Amino acid sequence: MQINYDFLLSQGVGAPSEPVVEVGEEVKRGQLIAKCPEGKLGQNIHASIYGVVESIDDKKITIKANEKQDDKFVELTSTEPIDLVREAGIVGLGGAGFPTHVKLGKPFEKGGVLLINAAECEPILDHNMRYINENAEYVVKSVKTVMDMVNAEKAIIGIKSLHTEEIAKLEAAIDCDNITIHGLENMYPMGEERALIREALGTLLNVTDLPLAADAIVINLETLYRIQEAIEFKKPLIDKDMTVAGLINGENIKTFRNVPIGTTVGEMIERAGGLATEEYGEIIMGGPFTGKRTTLESPVVKTTGGIIVTNPFWKAPEKMGLLVCACGGNKERLEQLAESMGAKEIVGVEYCKQAIEMKNGSRKCENPGHCPGQVQKVMNLKRAGAEAILISNCTDCSNTVMSCAPQLKVPVFHCTDAALRSVGMMLIRKIKK
Predict the structure, then answer these.
(1) Count of CB atoms situated within 10 Å of the CB of 90
(2) Spatial distance between the Cα atoms of 303 and 401, rounded to a whole number of angstroms
(3) pTM for the whole thing?
(4) DSSP E strand stretches across 36-138
(5) Hey, what domains does the chain have and what are their CATH numbers?
(6) Which of 226, 237, 329, 400 could form a disulfide with 333 if both were Cys (CB 3.0 to 4.6 A apart)?
């Protein structure tokens, strides 16, 4: 049984939160323990358990949990919906962590589309589909609430067409004409914000454009119903839904509802059945494409969507080339994986031709999921001496890599390989003919 819960002061976009509790103080579930700095972009953080503050430093607040716990929580005090969202500390729960009250803070003056991201874009993760399956009526209720908040004329739920059962339940729950469902292709990255807008609205935004440029606001599915909980029940964001998968005992993909934020990765693996073997590659927090390596001691945060215990890494040649895609692992992530695979030298780094560098150093794809070809990039890496390449490409980019790499006799590894192998899923290689 876990005793100490760590609450990181940075759990999304913006400035670190400022502690408002002291060491030795008794706290209740739902109590504010750190607040957004005055006048800055950030978020409030609340305790997810009953306990006593054990320590505070510049990174986290540690709370020692009481032996007895209760699902009851300290309710929010605001009255207006947007203020409740702000007070609750709700951020984008699809992984970005952008404060939701800012996104909802400018309602449409006329028209406007609320676009619900239910793509569950990353492979392996499936807690969003489970939620829809069990709570379709609440999803629709939540859509209506947020539509009212932002004065949206209509709402579109973007979901992969293969989820026929979930789509049927949503269709049965929708009782109005201005909420519709848009079926998406089963490929990565259908959940990327601009890809979703392109597919659902027919508008391809520039890499620097926000969804408002298409008269749209995009909300992740879990963010949507956490907004509803804050407004309906005055509940802070203290729990998280997630998938735990990979080399664990029993079923290798398991979903969990309302995991207290601050729970350790190790505790979640134990709850899922425990490690099936002591020999594994790594533990990922997030999904196979964009997740980060984590440890058993690391805490669940607001943006945690998955915990994956991967297969041991395949052995790679000594000289590796890296082909970086804006939609998957970045250069640093690929370097980390190459080292774990035993590569001795990175002989070259190439970027997908559509991976545009942003001012903050990150990259965005000009047209996510639609790849113009990677032949020149693969040839450059072969000429640099690469005995194999490690890629982080989307589904379509991987198609184009695999259209040329075999002919050039260049073996290909993908950043998702160890994770997908751990659950017996098809590797990201040539998906389409």
Answers:
(1) 26
(2) 31
(3) 0.96
(4) 45-46, 51-56, 60-65, 113-117
(5) 4-65 (2.40.50.100), 81-233 (3.40.50.11540), 239-309 (3.10.20.600), 319-422 (3.40.50)
(6) 329
